[in-house]
Amino acid sequence: MTTTVRPDWVTSTVRPDQPDAARLLREYMTEMVVRYHRRPALPGEVDEALAELPSDDLTYPSGLLVLAHHGAELAGCAGLRWYPDWAELTRVFIRPAHRGAGGGAALLAAVERHAGAAGADRIRLDTRADLVEARALYARHGYVEIPAYSQGPYAEHWFEKRLR
User: Fold this and answer.
1) Residues 65, 77: contact at Cβ < 8 Å?
2) Do 57 and 80 touch, CB atoms closer than 8 A?
3) Rounded distance, CA 110 to CA 135, Å?
4) Which of 21, 61, 84, 137 is deepest in the core (most CB within 10 A)?
5) What is the DSSP string of the chain?
């Protein structure tokens, strides 16, 4: 399904093994590794992180993956995992060249629409303390900090947005 959220941003759902999706998920994980370690990624480190935190469940029936194009350019992604009554947001990423142009808002609008259509009454997510831009994005779009709902190795802040 392809959706235009803003005139310059178009989103669509894809399988995580589709080439553009795989490319963006690798870029996302590379940035996560670099920011976590505060140094360039070592050989094999991104592959290890991709294996430790796979995205293959971001497809029907366990979830979905949304890609965003800014104009004609592949620009970002976001995923949802389904739980009873709610969805978990994950893998939110905008390529650096497209940051500050509304892509985060476009992706959040798209995943919120998909989650609501699937019957979810809220979206939850966890994130790291060093991802300050992500935390600010979520807060700007109505996500509020909540007590921990997960115990992931990198989870330091938890957010939720009620959809209805």
Assistant:
1) yes
2) no
3) 18
4) 21
5) -EEEEETTEEEEEE-TTSHHHHHHHHHHHHHHHHHHHTSPPPTTHHHHHHHHS--TTSSTTTEEEEEEEETTEEEEEEEEEEETTEEEEEEEEE-GGGTTTTHHHHHHHHHHHHHHHTT-SEEEEEE-TT-HHHHHHHHHTT-EE-S-----TT--EEEEEE--
Number of other residues whose CB lies within 10 A of the CB of residue 150: 10
**pLDDT tens-digit series, residues 48-106:** 999 999 999 999 999 999 999 999 999 999 999 999 999 999 999 999 999 999 999 99
Q: Which residues pair with 4 in a beta bridge?
A: 10
- What are 88's two structure tokens? 């978990």
Q: Would you say the C-alpha torsion 22, 72, 32, 137 has a positive or negative sign?
A: negative
| Of residues 87, 67, 63, 53, the one with CA closest to residue 24 | 67
Alpha-carbon gap, residue 17 to 27, rounded angstroms: 14
